[in-house]
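Run log, item B.
One chain of 82 residues. Sequence copied directly from the ordering sheet:
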Amino acid sequence: MLVDYKQPLKIFETLFGLFKVDKFQEKEVQVIGWYKRSMRPYFVCKYIIKDEERYQCYNYLLTKIVAYALIILGVLLKFILG
């Protein structure tokens, strides 16, 4: 199954691939996240645990922050512009 480990910016994915991916290849890890159904099911990764060390994926957190910021901005604009 595909594990979707995205970062907010592509440069972070590149750095992860260059410097950290060797720690996970052919190793036993625990992946925390959720399963999503689509034409091709996949698993969205929130973080990876290896040897009691946690590696965070910030895409979920950034998505939530941006969503709440846009909601607040929309409410403020509604009251300011009437």
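Observations after the first pass:
- The chain has one domain: 2-81.
- The chain is about 40% helix and 30% strand.
Flagged for discussion on Thursday.
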